[in-house]
Design goal:
Number of strands: 8
Largest sheet: 3 strands, antiparallel
Order of helices and strands: EEHHHHEEEEEE
Shape: rod-shaped
CATH superfamily of the largest domain: Head domain of nucleotide exchange factor GrpE
Number of domains: 2
CATH architecture of the largest domain: Roll
Structural class: alpha+beta
Number of helices: 4
Distance between the termini: 197 Å
Strand order of the largest sheet: 3-6-7
Radius of gyration: 59 Å
CATH class of the largest domain: Mainly Beta
Strand content: 15-25%
Helix content: 40-55%
């Protein structure tokens, strides 16, 4: 009995012997042995082929290059960080040094002017030492001297004396030696001008005379005649 296939309005009659022949042809093709001239290729899944090996080598090279570049970048970053720290430290030191210099200028910038004014104070001291207590001008000179000394003090100037003290070359300047037995040798016995400091820094040493041992008197005794 012929096979009938209906699909929509299409209808075909296929004879039974044609269907059988088609089935037998398919069975023969499936049972046919492989061509003896063909050599089967065995692929070892554990060994990659050449393209896979090349890809693996390329990835390895790229990884090594990336690691090298990363190490170089890290080194450059560390060097830049060190330079930044040194620059910051240098800037901080510069600020501190600038502040110290500013303070130095504020404290000692008028040192030269003050040194020029000190002889005026010396002359006032000499005038008072030579003036008579009954002189009506003495009180006025004392007032001027006191006002002048207060003005110097407002700028950090202080006077000191070396009378009666051991001679100190860091604070005294010896102008003369005074032979005397009334003071120990090396003692300041005369002061020509007081010394001054500016903010505890020596502005001018005291001008002094220093005691020395008096010369021995010559022997006045004469030997008797034999």
């Amino acid at each position: 009995m012929p096979h009938k296939i209906d699909k929509g309005t299409f209808r075909a009659d296929i004879p039974d012997d044609a269907v059988a022949d088609a089935l037998r042809s398919v069975e023969r093709s499936a049972a046919a042995p492989a061509d003896p001239g063909e050599v089967p290729v065995e692929v070892d899944p554990a060994e990659p082929d050449a393209s896979q090996a090349e890809a693996l080598a390329s990835l390895t090279a790229q990884l090594e290059l990336s690691q090298k570049l990363g190490r170089e970048t890290q080194k450059r970053l560390e060097e830049a960080h060190d330079r930044m720290l040194r620059a910051g430290a240098d800037l901080e030191n510069y600020k501190k040094r600038a502040l110290r210099e500013r303070d130095e200028v504020q404290k000692f910038g008028v040192e030269k002017l003050l040194k020029d004014l000190l002889p005026v104070m010396d002359n006032l001291d000499r005038a008072l030492a030579a003036a008579s207590a009954e002189d009506p001008l003495t009180a006025g000179v004392k007032l001027v001297r006191s006002s002048f000394e207060q003005a110097l003090a407002r700028h950090g100037v202080k006077a000191f004396t070396g009378l009666g003290q051991p001679f100190d070359p860091s604070r005294h300047e010896a102008l003369m030696q005074v032979p005397t037995a009334e003071a120990a040798p090396g003692t300041v016995v005369v002061e020509h001008a007081r010394g001054f400091t500016l903010h505890d820094r020596l502005l001018r040493p005291a001008l002094v005379g220093v005691a020395t041992a008096p010369a021995a008197a010559p022997d006045q005794g004469g030997g008797g005649a034999a």
